[in-house]
Each structure stands twice: as C-alpha cells, then as structure tokens.
Amino acid sequence: RPFIAVASIVVLFFGPRRPAASLAPLRGRVLTRVPVAPSAKTESAPQIGDQQDLRQHRQDQGEERIRASRRWTVAGAAVLGVLTLSTLARAAGPEVDIYFGSGTFYRLQHELVMKEALELGRREGDITALAGYAGGKKAGPLERLCYNGLLGAPDHVSLGHAQVVRVTLPTSKISDFTKTCLEQVKGRILAQQGPQFRAVIGIRGGMNSEYYPLISEVCDGKVKLVKGEGNEPDTFGTDTVYVYDSRKFPWRPAETSNQFRDD
Predict the structure, then answer these.
(1) Are strands 224-227 and 162-170 parallel, antiparallel or unpaired?
(2) Residue 19 DSSP symbol
(3) Contact 98, 166 (CB under 8 A)
C-alpha cells in the first residue's frame, strides 16, 4: 500500500501536463519593436495585443495553480488512506491463523473473503482466506490431500478430513469471524451432509488456546463446542462444533482449482 501511494504521487506530479503559456513571445515582441511615428492605429494595435497575451498568460497560470492544488489534494488523500489502514491494523493487535468449516468450503470462503475486504480493508494479495482440509488423523504421501480419490489420490473424505477455510486474523476480529462461521452452521442445507461437511474450528492450542474464550463467548448458548479428536462424524442437525488444536490437526491447502470458486 505505501508503494501505491508513492506511485500515485509520482504520476500526479511528474505525469504529462499541459504546458503553461510563456511570456517569451511577448517579451520578444516588446524588445524588438521598431519605433514608428506616433499614430492612433500603430500604437493602439500592439498595446491591445500585449494586453491580450498578458491576460491569457495570467489565466493559464491560474489554471495551473488549480491543477497543482488538486494533485496535492489527491496525493494527500492517498497517503492519509494508507496511514489510516496501517494504524487500524496495528491497533487491531497481533494476528493468528484460524480455520473454520461448515458445509462446502466454496460458500464459506466467499463469506470470509468479503469480510476481509470490507472490514479489514484487504485487497488481492492481502486476502488470506484459503480453502483446504483439516481434522483427519492421516494424510497422503508428502502430506497431500485431494478433493476426490481419482486415480488413487489421497482424498480428504476417506482420510477423515473436513472442508475448511483458513484465515489470518487480528485477535480483535476472532469473535466477529466466528459469528460468520456460526451463520454457516445454521444455514447448512440437506445436500451438504457427510463428515467432510462437519462444523469445525481450528486454532493453535485448541480449547487451551489463550484466544479460546473469544470463541466460546460467541458460541455460548448457540452451539456446543467439543474437543476434536480427529475423523469425527457429521454434525448436521446436532449444533455441535468440533474445536481442533491446529498443531495436531493442521490445515492443508486444497487444489488451486478449488480456490475462490462460485458456489
């Protein structure tokens, strides 16, 4: 973001501008004028021309000042925006990785991406919400997991994993993003049944995490939080959410083709 602000300033101040009118032609004509006999016609014509050139020059100078003022205003707004976002990020506190799961990860990823953009001011490469798999006791060779078992691939379903979305959050936003996850728990449809669609939350330390109270406070009276042991069954219709220690049940990325898809 600081690079964008600097680039904006460079473009605004060093980009193409309309050249201001110059007094050079006027000076040249005044200095090289040949004296002639006094006459109403010979004196009045050059004086009127000189006045028109001077008036045009002053007008062009005024327009250039207005354009310069606008460039300063836009550049200042860009820098102020960068500083504001940076200040808000610092004020939000340290960041932690946390993953959520409920239903397909396509819809949940969309919801979390929108929250990152609208509430955290993140754009493009700053977005951290990525689809993946977690909650199973085993993984395939090289820690790989796949969406299906085509050609013998280690599919996440048979290995006991759930579809999840990992996101990096300021600690002050954990509660807010947990609420979004709970909305997905309540909104699951009949077609999304199976252990791969179970409701889960994963954070370093699990229920022993220092940030777990932020999660339990939001979930109190709405869902039942249960310690995740891996390979659990579906939670559809039970209001149960498994809480995993992400050190024991880490997030593993889904395929590129399964990222940012339209649900």
Answers:
(1) unpaired
(2) P
(3) yes
